Amino acid sequence: MNLSRRGFTGSGAALYQRSRAAQPRPSRKNVLFLLSDQHRRDAIGIEGNPLAVTPRLDELARQGVRFSDAYCADPVCTPSRASIFTGLHTYHHRAWNNGSPWPFETKTIAHHFNHAGYMTAAIGKMHFVDAQTHGFDYRLDFNDWFQYLGPVTKLYSDEINRANSGSGHPQIHNLWERGDPWLGARDDDRRQGLVHIGRPSLIPEEQHFESFVARESIRFLREHGKKQPFFLVSGFLKPHDPYMPAERFAKMFRDTDMKLPETWGKVDLTRTPQEIANRIRRHTPTPELANEAMARRRIAMYWANVAQLDAAVGQVLDTLRELNLENDTIVVYSSDHGEMLGDHGLFQKFVFYEPSAGVPLIFRIPGYAQGQVSREPVSQVQLAETLYELCNIPSPGGLDGSSFLNVMQKPASARPGRTAPVHAAFNSQTKSGRTMLRKGKYKYSYYFNDMPELYDLENDPHEMRNLALEANHRSLAGELKAELLQWGGSHPSTHETRG
To answer: Domain 427-499 has what CATH class?
Structure first.
């Protein structure tokens, strides 16, 4: 990795150390980045899903540009978030998994916005893993929420029922290096695995993490929003587990009204990578999901989590309007990855199927098109360069994603196949790793030690027919594999392949 381009080193370090007070502060748009966790791309009402109670996100989409084919760069929290805020793929930023800290020498979008005179803030979940702030001036996270909760923290510990920094308990693994301090102090809810199916939360709504993030984002906007340009990330946890929404949202969805996905129980396991087949057979984190009634409960509580997230997002957007900051602020909404939610018989993420690797992505930009939809496949690794261009901030160079600002200027004209392909990776430093290529209507997944997958998303949107195993698609699969292996995220020389 060329650190002289990807981070501030050498003479660049001296440049960065200059006092920001001495730098010119041109009139620039603020940025409000609303980031959720595990939100499926289609889990927004404007997409036509009647279960998605998301009036505020729908409104945001009608006021901006929505990307119908946006992808995360790595379908798990930490690597995905590192890609969003560095503009680098996992093999360059090297935050390989949820236990890998973001390397210090790889600078984030916060460093570059800081240098341009912005005040930067990260409020809520960022999943840094260690104590680095990665360039953000203003920082509140799970540990601040726990201080706010005080004794109520035990209720959250009961909901998590395990040490899991993915849900902020703890935020930094090494804080519990002597073991889980809550072990033996939690009330047992008799779950069979690590993750509960879902139920109404016992924590009052105003004390939920989403309420805390919204409230503290509002405090930041009121105290700092008009003093200088700002780059604010509001990092919500929902709809990520625990699937325990506040009671009023849980009451909106009944288990008996939930339908299992069309693909439930229909996947040909002989034409599926072994790891995926094993996950379909065994729901290890939540064994109860093998029971269809329990699966419906999980689905209902997911949609309740989505509704609660939307309400919290709305509070922040209302404050932006109240403070007359709307015309001076670019608003971005996205999530770090999706959620399978029973599609293919799978739950959670980690795979390249559309519900997992696909993410919602909305831009509301003052003066730009409203209510437009782009079908151009884009990657979150492109977000950094896009925001640099939008805010007239010099790019640090050497990033893995190019700006798609030109797409937002004419969103309806973009179509799959006219632009550069989209790449993603997962566990790519291990023998069980895999990488993905979305090119035009095709998606090809290369497994380092398993069978490949090839899907025609136009004619097979549910990804049920693996064309990589068919003779009449062998040539196409070979071409896409060769193209993917030229990409830096694949390391075939160190892994065996089959299929």
So the answer is: alpha beta
